[in-house]
């Protein structure tokens, strides 16, 4: 059975999700730019991002980094906050996402790959090559958002040997802290794949939190579930995702 951080008693009627719910609402983005050739559906246009953030703002919600979200919740100030995350560290973040975030007064967390500085998304067999941020680009982004690690090179940690696992977690953190000149608190599992060994490695590397994708038995501060937000997420779909967020994380009880 899947575990859940939802503290509601089994059988309790689900209530609509809210930012004060036990599970924080964390949105997952990747690239922001032209999405005409986008087989993995990882891209939203700047105009779509603008409308989605506007939707949050109209509901009285504010997008923040995951570090800020968790710190606020720990002090009982999480109401109205939504975590915004951008994976992979695409170069378009600085040109297209940062200006939109600034316009809305929102923060975010950008998960980058210090082992692929100035490279591209070579791990995706299909689709267009997208350039990744250089060291200078990451420093530019760091002026506006939280920088977290996505590992060194985008490998599935559940398939990595001990040496690679340590390099991808502890090694990437050390590189990023040197690059950005600031502590790095957050990690994000490539592909969202996570197991106990990967969680232990991330904890041992000193990360205070880590983002996964799907909820599961490891859900917690070092495997935070996130919701994919894409180009097709208009206001209506965002509304549904927002309401279903809590339901999605409830354990399945007594399957007939
Ligand atoms: Zn990724």
CATH topology: TIM Barrel
Radius of gyration: 17 Å
Uncertain residue segments: 1-20, 251-256
Biggest β-sheet strands, sense, barrel: 6 strands, parallel
CATH class: Alpha Beta
| First-last Cα distance | 14 Å
Helicity range:
25-40%
Find the structural class using helix and strand composition: alpha/beta
Q: Beta-strand level of the residues, as a percent range?
A: 5-15%
Protein name: Polysaccharide deacetylase
Keywords: Signal
InterPro entries: Glyco_hydro/deAcase_b/a-brl (IPR011330), NODB_dom (IPR002509), Polysacch_Deacetylase (IPR051398)
Subcellular location: Secreted
Task: Throw out a few tags for this protein.
256 residues; alpha/beta; TIM Barrel; six-stranded parallel sheet; two-stranded parallel sheet; 7 helices; 13% strand; disordered N terminus; binds zinc ion
